[in-house]
């Protein structure tokens, strides 16, 4: 698992560097590092979670990224939980419905990205087929990226 985490973090880091540094370099040199002049596709760029709430400030402390790959069985449900800092879930296969305790629901499908809630209690419910998602969480060292709710 740690090997997968290290590889995922390396891929995420390389992607972030490429998305931030390379376009600036290309603009100053006129060069293009993208095959056939293509450009990266932005999958998510937001300051709000899926329910439209603005994200709060990050917790103070040493930043820490967590990247998880999670595959669920059909109709599986995550425990009710909260996130103390922003996370985003990329749906690699299947569908995922997220819901809050007060009944707000949203369904995301393969290829879509879900900006997770920070604070409110929620859970995920897989669709009719196994659902594979990649979860990217930005938090603080020593603090969990998710907390089970009671």
From TrEMBL:
The keyword Signal applies. The keyword Magnesium does not apply. Gene3D superfamilies: Jelly Rolls. Residues 1-26 form the signal peptide. Keywords: Signal. This is Cupin 2 conserved barrel domain-containing protein. It comes from Paraburkholderia humisilvae. The lineage of its organism: Bacteria, Pseudomonadati, Pseudomonadota, Betaproteobacteria, Burkholderiales.
């Amino acid at each position: 698992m740690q090997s997968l985490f290290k590889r995922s973090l390396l891929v995420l880091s390389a992607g972030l560097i490429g998305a931030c540094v390379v376009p600036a370099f290309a603009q100053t040199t006129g060069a293009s590092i993208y095959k056939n002049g293509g450009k990266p596709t932005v999958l998510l760029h937001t300051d709000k979670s899926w329910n439209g709430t603005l994200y709060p400030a990050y917790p103070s402390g040493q930043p820490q990224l967590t990247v998880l790959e999670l595959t669920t069985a059909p109709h599986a449900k995550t425990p009710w939980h909260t996130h103390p800092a922003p996370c985003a879930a990329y749906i690699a296969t299947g569908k995922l419905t997220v819901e809050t305790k007060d009944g707000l629901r949203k369904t995301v499908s393969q290829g879509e990205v879900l900006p997770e809630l920070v604070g409110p209690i929620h859970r995920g419910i897989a669709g009719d087929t196994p659902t594979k998602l990649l979860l990217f969480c930005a938090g603080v060292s020593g603090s969990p990226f998710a907390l089970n709710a009671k």
